[in-house]
């Protein structure tokens, strides 16, 4: 239910950019054009995504008591994804990439993921589940980047890549808001945290298997 698709964009080769249909949308291009008229850098946009994630995490933690805050979480997740889209467009299409752009492309994403997923676990009443999900989510990125370090095109496949995790969290916010008016349990959040953990582990397996398959294909006589 993600309004803004994920844009884990770097100023590296096009093969190492996540395919994102929203880059071709008029909305994204107009926003990019506006940003290029300012002094805002792609790295600052990447850091802004962490700020939105932090706000979303705080809102999610308190949404259990004040359910209307689920709407704030939903907005924060979408703004985080919008930043993920625009940082790459300003860097690549706008020609504002920097030597440290790859670091700003990856590190803020890991922090933003951790903030939101850990908060999800605590909001669901299972903090350990949030930490486990955050670790598994970070491992999906590690496997992807490791494949790139071997000279392979980075693999953005799911089933629980970043855009899938954030789409699921967005849907969970809507369902949890409705659940809050029907019962005091937090079944939606708890189930979502488990899906993120299991799906992220499955994603790690799928990406690792693809890396091994490509290596074996390259080494065959």
From TrEMBL:
Alphabetical list of InterPro entries matching this protein: CDP-OH_PTrfase_TM_dom (IPR043130)
Lineage: superkingdom: Bacteria
Compositionally skewed regions (Acidic residues) per UniProt: 1-11
Membrane-spanning segments: 45-64, 115-143, 164-181, 187-206
UniProt keyword annotations, A-Z: Membrane, Transmembrane, Transmembrane helix
UniProt-annotated stretches for the region Disordered: 1-21
Name of the molecule in the record: CDP-diacylglycerol--glycerol-3-phosphate 3-phosphatidyltransferase
Gene source species: Sinorhizobium medicae
Classification of source organism: Bacteria, Pseudomonadati, Pseudomonadota, Alphaproteobacteria, Hyphomicrobiales
């Amino acid at each position: 239910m993600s309004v803004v698709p994920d844009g884990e964009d770097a100023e590296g080769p096009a093969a190492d950019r996540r395919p994102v249909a929203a880059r071709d949308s008029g909305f994204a291009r107009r926003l990019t054009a506006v940003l290029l008229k300012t002094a805002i850098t792609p790295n600052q946009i990447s850091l802004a995504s962490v700020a939105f994630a932090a706000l979303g995490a705080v809102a999610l933690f308190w949404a259990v008591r004040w359910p209307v805050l689920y709407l704030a979480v939903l907005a924060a997740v979408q703004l985080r994804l919008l930043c993920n889209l625009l940082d790459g467009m300003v860097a690549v299409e706008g020609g504002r990439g920097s030597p440290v752009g790859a670091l700003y492309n990856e590190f803020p994403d890991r922090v933003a993921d951790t903030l939101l997923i850990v908060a999800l676990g605590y909001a669901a009443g299972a903090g350990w589940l949030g930490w486990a999900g955050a670790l598994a989510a970070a491992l999906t990125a590690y496997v992807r980047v490791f494949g790139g370090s071997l000279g392979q095109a980075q693999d953005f496949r799911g089933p629980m890549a970043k855009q899938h995790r954030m789409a699921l969290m967005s849907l969970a916010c809507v369902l949890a808001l409705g659940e809050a008016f029907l019962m005091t349990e937090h079944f939606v959040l708890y189930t979502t945290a488990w899906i993120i953990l299991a799906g992220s582990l499955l994603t790690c397996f799928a990406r690792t298997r693809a890396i091994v398959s490509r290596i074996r294909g390259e080494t065959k006589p």
